[in-house]
Write a structure and sequence with these properties.
By secondary structure, the protein is an all-alpha fold. Helix content is 75%, strand content 2%. It contains ten helices and two strands. A two-stranded antiparallel sheet has the order 1-2. β1 and β2 form a beta hairpin. α9 runs antiparallel to α10.
């Protein structure tokens, strides 16, 4: 925490002498975020949008901030701007999908996640959040495919492996149920 406060002081000094320094403005926004001063963070990132440097970074980090603060409609607005202005910012596009998922706009979230995965089929964050959404939608077979892929990509991540195992067990259990003509089941 002390180092963050030192960094904030140094960046403030830079901005006193050069208020048009977009890099310092952006970096100070990152420091303020880490210090949990979200009002100042938002102000600095919005100010960064006036400069040509770090424009995509400011949009992305505003999206992350708005997601954390549960200001989801603002998150979508900012991250759609990022998506339009920087087609290669896959992390920002993934954050947009995550925000849409939190808003329960699953159709748009699916479109965003799949567009990211078309460009980078191994994008861990997009895969993970898409898999979580599929679980929410009870699309367990597709979610199993995603978490199996994640387990292969990062076998050291116990959560991916465990989620794939749980999905596999759930699917197995459901397929083993015996259905009777009256609609009842026996487990």
């Amino acid at each position: 925490m002390h180092r963050l406060e030192e960094a904030d002081v140094l960046l403030s000094e830079v901005l006193e002498t050069d208020p048009e320094n977009g890099n310092a403005t952006f970096c100070r926004g990152l420091v303020q975020y880490d210090l949990h001063n979200y009002t100042m963070t938002e102000e600095l990132f919005l100010l960064t949008l006036n400069f040509t440097t770090n424009h995509s970074g400011a949009l992305y980090n505003l999206g992350v901030l708005y997601t954390e603060l549960n200001r989801l409609s603002e998150c979508v607005k900012i991250l759609e701007q990022l998506r339009e202005s920087d087609h290669a910012h896959l992390l920002g596009h993934t954050q947009l999908g995550t925000c849409l998922m939190k808003m329960k706009d699953y159709a748009r979230a699916r479109e965003v996640f799949t567009s990211v995965l078309e460009v980078d089929p191994d994008h861990l964050m997009a895969l993970q959040n898409y898999g979580i959404m599929l679980i929410e939608l009870r699309e367990n077979r597709e979610a199993l495919e995603i978490f199996t892929q994640l387990s292969r990509l990062d076998p050291s991540d116990v959560a991916f492996v465990r989620q794939a195992e749980l999905l596999h067990q759930h699917i197995q259990k459901r397929s083993q149920r015996k259905f009777y003509t009256d609609g009842s089941t026996q487990d």
